[in-house]
Amino acid sequence: MNVNKNMTPRYIFFSFIILFFSCQDKCNEYTTYVNSTPVYSNMESLRDSIYYDDIRDINSPGKLNYKSGYLFISETGKGIHVIDNRVVSNPKKLGFINIPGNYDIATKDDYLYADSYIDLVIFDISDINSIKEVNRIKGSFQNYYENRMLFSENLGIVTGYNEEVIEEFIESKDCELVF
């Protein structure tokens, strides 16, 4: 019986040693994520890029506005399609007003109001064949973009993002709390 009493502490000791060294707190991890870097544009160059253009396909329609037989359909972030809808059974695309950063439109009397990032742009639509910008209220929506960190006086306005897919392999990462 004396032999068993001496063996028990040894078994306990060696059992703890084996358990201690057999626990592995390291593991390998494979991670994939997208890194988005903002693309900034100068507001002056964006302001100079508003023009009336030929018709184009409607790919991402936004708001729709009807005025005196004409439809104005915003193309999300790009501008406004002008459509003659006086003959409902045969609508005709007339043109496209290129307005970078356009998401919202409204009409009142002979004027079309549109946002262009931080500006409010006003067009005279009294002659639908000769739509012209008649006024611009600079900075009308500046607070909206500043509060979302999308505008800076130094850098300009965020007009998009460059996206890069990054794949990482982390060897022997501490995975103690990986549940």
Condensed summary:
The protein is α+β, with helices and mostly antiparallel strands. It has helices spanning 2-22, 43-47, 142-147, and strands spanning 26-41, 51-53, 61-67, 70-75, 79-84, 92-98, 105-108, 111-116, 119-124, 132-137, 151-152, 156-174.
Structural account:
With 179 residues, this protein is of the alpha+beta class. The chain has a domain of 94 residues: Thrombin, subunit H. The chain is 18% helix and 49% strand. Strand 7 and strand 8 form a beta hairpin.
Mean pLDDT: 88
Could you name the ranges where pLDDT drops below 50 across 5 or more consecutive residues? none
CATH class identity of the domain at 45-138: Mainly Beta
Can you name the CATH architecture of the domain at 45-138?
Beta Barrel
Q: What is the helix/strand order? A: HEHEEEEEEEEEHEE
Q: How many strand elements?
A: 12
Shape, per Cα inertia axes:
elongated
**Main beta sheet:** 5 strands, antiparallel
Q: From the alpha-carbon coordinates, what is the Rg to the nearest angstrom?
A: 32 Å
Q: Provide the spatial order of strands within the biggest beta sheet.
A: 2-6-5-4-3
Strand residue percentage? over 45%
Structural class: alpha+beta
Distance from N terminus to C terminus (CA atoms, Å) equals 46 Å
Looking at the structure, the CATH topology of the domain at 45-138 is Thrombin, subunit H
Instruction: Please work out how many helical segments DSSP would assign.
Output: 3
